[in-house]
Amino acid sequence: NLRLQKKVANICFAGGQTFNGRLVLNGISGSDRSPVKIKSWGNGRAVINGENDEAIEIENSRNIWILDLDLKGNGRNHGNKTNGLSILQSSSCKVENINTIGFQKSGVALYNCTYSVVRKVIASENGFCGINIMGSARNLSRKILIQDCKAENNPGDPTNIENHSGNGILVGVSDSVTIDHCTATNNGWDMPRKGNGPVGIWTWESDHVTIQYCISYR
């Protein structure tokens, strides 16, 4: 496990290798011209295996870019109880070219984040949701772009018997979010609760949400 709470430069993981444990950044700020980049380096992609925990958690930070990584968990039915990538109360972050698989909650989750981008993410075999944007109030999660992403085969959260799970892309309690050129397929087939949802791509209690040029099927 690696926990960083002071100013850092880029964090590079050797391509083709697997790193077990979790990476936590709290209170880290890159600049507009020089964001802090967490990425693969060299040949191939690095794998961060969070096992039963998050692979990456970022909180109270700014200008953090997460690029070209594979995030892996032990699986929704095999011990993992978390998100794959969690970004909390942060701004101006970018998630791009990330694959996230095997987390009980969401593959990528942003909570109370602003002015951030989620692009070219493939979220599969997660429980609650592929990509989840949430706020505690509408003006606290806003100005988010989700673009060119795929949410595939996210079956459902086996521990959630009170509400929906197995969603593709979900935006809740947010303002000014665009979901553009994304695909959701084969989600929700193992939701344990009988009732509302799941849905491939949807939003609730939010303002100014645009879903455009997307496909949701099966």
Runs with pLDDT <50, length 5+? none
**Total number of beta strands:** 22
First CA to last CA: what distance? Answer: 38 Å
Largest sheet: 14 strands, parallel
Strand content: over 45%
Structural class: mainly beta
Quaternary organization: single chain
Q: How big is the Rg?
A: 16 Å
Determine the fraction of residues in helical runs and give it as a percent range. Answer: under 10%
Mean pLDDT: 96
Helix count, per DSSP?
Answer: 0
Provide the succession of SSEs: EEEEEEEEEEEEEEEEEEEEEE
Gross morphology is globular
How would you characterize the overall build of this protein?
0% of the residues lie in helices and 50% in strands. By secondary structure, it is mainly β. The strands form 2 sheets. Strands 2, 3, 5, 6, 8, 10, 12, 13, 15, 16, 18, 19, 21 and 22 form a 14-stranded parallel sheet that branches. An 8-stranded parallel sheet has the order 1-4-7-9-11-14-17-20, with no helix packed on it.
Give a quick summary of the entry.
With 218 residues, this protein is mainly β.
Pick out its properties.
eight-stranded parallel β-sheet, 0% helix, 14-stranded parallel β-sheet, mainly beta, 22 strands, 218 residues
